[in-house]
Amino acid sequence: MEWINQNKILIVGLGLIGGGYAKALSRIGYDVYAIDANPDSIGYAIDNGIILDGSIEPTPELVGSADAVIFAIYPDRLVKWIKDYQQYFKPGIRITDVTGVKCSVVYDVQAILRDDVEFIAAHPMAGREVYGVRNSTERIFHDANYLVVPTEKNTPEAIEWCKRLGKLIGFRKVSVLSPEEHDKAIGYVSQLTHVIAVALMTCNDNRHLSDYTGDSFRDLTRIARINDEMWSTLFFMNKDALLQEMNMFINEMTKMRDLLQSDDVEGMRAKLRLSNYRRSWFDDNKKEGK
What we know:
This protein has 11 helices and 9 strands. By secondary structure, it is α/β, with parallel strands linked by helices. The two termini are 26 Å apart.
């Protein structure tokens, strides 16, 4: 195997993303096992060849035999999991995650982690408006970005190991950010966009709008079908960064409202031209595979 010398991978949390990792790693020949509190998820994954075996509990045998561990659980649960079960880890292994916030998680995990285990954080920028292993697919990774989020405690070898994981399961681009850079960027490109989508859906209760809408509204509100437990956790765990981005957006909306209110056609057109120009950065980046 090109990623690690041994091939037994344990995934903790067999939902949409954990299931996608399991499918990708199983397909290319790794022996994948999983832990998930839902016995139906474990049973489904075994029956469909997504994992070789699994458990609803972190048993010493299952955790202790893993050559690498991928955590796909809510960020507020990760620190407790490490506290409770890290004694089972095989000496010298590396662990990683998929959580959407980093500053409030990574430093705490690294502070309590055994010296012979290395945690290198990551964030797959992929998802769908459905949940669970039954809806998982590795295809969501293939046109997506993968973020590796090291700290000064991480070794160069672990950073490269985590980057190879992203490439191995098919992410389009792999980037490296500090936890602070990550949380600021995610506050804008992910969390703010979800806040906007939710606000669009909650500011008007006219049921008949669904009869009149076009693609623009559907595209803007696609992510408003949201997991309230997970996303509220992410919002509050990245509160300061998200508030900054929300205030920036409110200020920009106020400027556009004022342009409209004052009949400033040229000012409005200038805003639209700036939007068009900046949106082209994303199109060019995707087209060139950067």
